[in-house]
Structure formats: structure tokens, C-alpha cells
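Side project, low priority. Logging it here so it doesn't get lost.
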Amino acid sequence: MYRFLLSRQWVILTLVALLLIPTMIRLGIWQMHRYEERTARNHLVSEALSAKPVPVERMTSPGHTVTTHDRYRSVTAKGHFDTDDEVVVRRRTNSDDEVGYHVLTPFVLADGKVLLVNRGWIPANGPSQTVFPKIPAPPKGEITVTGRLMPDETTAASGIKNLKGLPDRQVMLINSEQEAERLRRTVLGGYIAQTAPEPKGDSPEQIGANPGKEDAALNYAYAIQWWLFSVGVPIGWVVLVRREVRDRREKAEQGSAAEAEPAAV
């Protein structure tokens, strides 16, 4: 009755099922690892966002690489904005996925060092992207700014190509080393996304208040889903085998009944 399992069709079906089970188990494990990674990352982000602001020079220095642990840490800096060397960062979106620019303004500290400040997003509503857009001016004079510390952007980390030959005062990436070369000044590593003073009037739209957090629950759900699929494969295989056995048994019984029926005279 079970000889059909040796047929080409059933051998292929059984091999596919045997391959699917470990594959689905591995996919579930991978999703669980992603869940744990995102949960740990979200925990770091929450800690950084809830920490009290500290002077920026306690967290970074010229040539310093901002670590994952220090990312989003709230920092303060006292100095003044230098709008003469202000640039815009191309192809950036706001919370509504509208394409525009980020405004990157050098902030000169008391000792002459420069902190890069991302003041926020402005729309790309000019006649063309080759013309430097009109940017709302920052507060004048000496002020204290607060922001979230961010690492330098790179093509490897962001996927954004650092294009050459861009229009004047336009860049693709926020990178302290590149800006130090352009400004010919000492620039602190990384940059900050400004959170205070809060924007007034037509100021740039500040970046989201809760950045960087990822939905880890989806990865947990996907892991459970893959493991359920891995359990369902052998169950499905058994159901198909039992159905095939039942169908063959019914056909055999029908054949025997037909042979036993006497021929009409």
C-alpha cells in the first residue's frame, strides 16, 4: 500500500519537505537573533535619549569616532553659528517622505573648534537643485544649542553614494573629516541633530523626536512564524500520505467489488 512513496513524484516531494524543515528552523533562529539585536539597540537608544545633556566635548573630539553606545546622546555646546560656510545635504526626506535638504551649519565654539550642527529639513522647492536654496537664518550671537550626537555618515553605513561635482555648498554625506578639509578648521568628530532652541517661524523642520528605534516585535513574530511552518511541513506530509493511502484503498475496494459482481445473463 505504501509503495507509492518510492515513485518519482513522492520521492521529490519528500526531499523538498526534508529540505524545508531545517531551512525554516534556521530562518526562525536568524529572525530571533535580529530581534535580540534590535532590542539591545533600542535599549541603547532609549538610554541615550533619556540621559541628561552633557557638554559635547566630553563625548567627542577632533578625529573621534562616535560609537553605537554614544549615538543619540544629548549634548550641549556654547558658541555661535557660522552661516557663511553653511551647506545643504541633498536627497533627504522629512517625516512625510517629502524630498528636500538637511541644513548643515558649522557651530564655532569658544576655543575655535567647530561642531557640525544639522539644523533640520527644508523642502527642495527652488527652481532647480543646482541653485543653493533659501535657508532660514539661525539665532545670531552666542547661544547654547542642544542636540543628539550622531556618527559621521559614510557610504558603507548609509548606502548613499558620495557623488562628486555637486553644485557649490551641497554635499551628499555629513562627514566631519570632509568638512574639516573644506573648512580648513578643526572639527569635532561626528555631528549633532539639533533639538534646542526649538524652531520658530520658518526655521528648518527638526528631525524626529524618537529616531533610531526599530520594531523588534516583527522579528519575534517572524521567528515564531517560521518555526510554526517547520512544524507544519511534516504534518502536511503525513496528511498527504494518509489521503493517498485512503484513495488507493478505496479504489482497490471498488475494483474488488466490481470483480465479485456476477455477470448479467
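Brief comment: The two ends are 35 Å apart (CA to CA).
Revisit when time allows.
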